[in-house]
Amino acid sequence: MTEENKVAAQAEQQAPTMSLQKIYTKDVSFEAPNAPQVFNEQGQPDIKLNMNQKVNKLDENNFEVALTATVTCTVNEKTAYLVEVCGAGIFGMQNFDDQALHQTLGVYCPNVIFPYVRQQISDMVLAGGFQPLLLQPVNFEQMYAQQMRQAQEQAASSTKQ
Questions:
Q1: Under a CB-based contact definition with an 8 Å cutoff, are residues 122 and 71 in contact?
Q2: Which residue in 28, 41, 40, 137 sits closest to 82, CA to CA?
Q3: Which regions of the chain does DSSP assign to beta strands (E)?
Q4: Is residue 84 within 8 Å of 72, Cβ to Cβ?
Q5: In the CATH scheme, what is the code of domain 19-133?
Q6: Can the peptide bond before residue 137 be classed as cis, meaning omega within 30 degrees of 0?
Q7: C-alpha to C-alpha distances, 110 to 22, 39, 142, nearest whole angstrom
Q8: Which of 12, 34, 156, 158 could form a disulfide with 38 if both were Cys (CB 3.0 to 4.6 A apart)?
């Protein structure tokens, strides 16, 4: 093996690699506290979405990323339904520097999990007797950038005190 081939092989071994090992449902919940009376309510539904994610380091190279989406629908200030889905994935991550690892876990991984969470929410809302709900795509890159700005602002304000 020539020196060039050795260097190329070594560089390839040190390149960041990621593998999706499993996607699964961690938790689901559906409530329709005002059914069946809410089915007769007239008015525009007000839908609120709350999302959060959690990263759990399983071992040196494997991480669980859990994405939780909570949807609350109210009609005339009465809760029509509340649905919560926590979908998760196990991702193998090797040869990432800390910043790239943090960003990949905060942006790419939730993007992979979100379509599964969105489908489960849609299915549960429909099975609950309500109009289909299809959540719009989420810009996880923008959410990540906002979280980083908030963390920087908090760090800056705590050092001033």
A1: no
A2: 28
A3: 17-31, 46-57, 62-75, 78-94
A4: no
A5: 3.10.420.10
A6: no
A7: 13, 34, 12
A8: 34
| Six-digit token string for 67 | 């994405």
φ/ψ (deg, to 5) at 90: -110, 125
| Sequence ranges of the domains in the chain | 19-133
The helix/strand/coil state of 134 is: coil
- Please tell me whether the overall predicted TM-score, pTM, comes out greater than 0.90 for this model: no
Integer Cα distance of 91 and 65 in angstroms: 8
Is the backbone of residue 95 left (phi > 0), alpha (psi -120 to 50) or beta? Answer: left
Asked if residue 101 lies in contact with residue 93, where contact means CB atoms within 8 angstroms, the answer is yes
* Nearest-angstrom CA–CA distance, 53 and 155: 21
